[in-house]
Amino acid sequence: MVDRRTLLLASMAAFVPATTFARQSSPSPKTFDYGPAKLDIYAPDAASGLPVVFFVHGGAWEFGKRSQVGAKPAFLLANGFCFVSIDYRMLPEADVATQANDVEKAYAYVMANVAGHGGDPTRIVGMGHSAGCHLIALTGMRGGLPGVAGLLLNDTRAYDLAALEKNGGMERAYARVFSDPSQWAALSPASYVDGRKHPPTFIAYSGASGRGEESKAFAERLRATGTEVTLFDGSAYTHMSINRDFGRGGDALTAAALTFLKSTVG
Predict the structure, then answer these.
(1) Strands 38-42, 82-86: pairing kind
(2) Alpha-carbon separation of residue 174 from 24, 58, 167 (angstroms)
């Protein structure tokens, strides 16, 4: 069943001003070494005190790079945000636990330095797609992103690895990456949900196999703690297009996510 907030956001998407999606020139980032890897900070000229979107790319924990951001930087800068995209060490060099630690180190670097680039370290939203969605959810739920204002989670099945196995979803990349059952609890965002309220969380899922079921179950578990959750039905998207289309004109997920961002840190 689609919750009322999701329906409201979906309906609001149709009324976002056209200028929100106006074509922008691609901004150039400033690149920094945060220790394990590098990150890019995109900020408007002479920016000061802007909210920040901290993005972790996908790629099955094995591939991808921080430059694969599509229209996100131009769109978010045009709408009053700074944007950060990070690299983290890939499998097989680094296991998933190490990758999560990399994300936390990158976040700590941004917290300490983003004010010098026009961002507000008290208004950071963590965002990730696919493997990056899992890493943002994991670090955010376990308290590894201190002070994070919100989480924007875009399309993973890896919220609860034991449940994934039980439901027959531990196959292909998941079986390869999460081959040790003794690590499943520690690497499952759901393990850290119960017992406390979490920052406002936006959860989007595509039409790819199992994404809706796992996302809805995670959303309900979060809601049980009193956390404010927005669940976006992106079943019309593929796993790739739900990330690729973000920031493009007329995209419904972009409009709903912008509403969430504005209500959380705008």
Answers:
(1) antiparallel
(2) 37, 13, 13
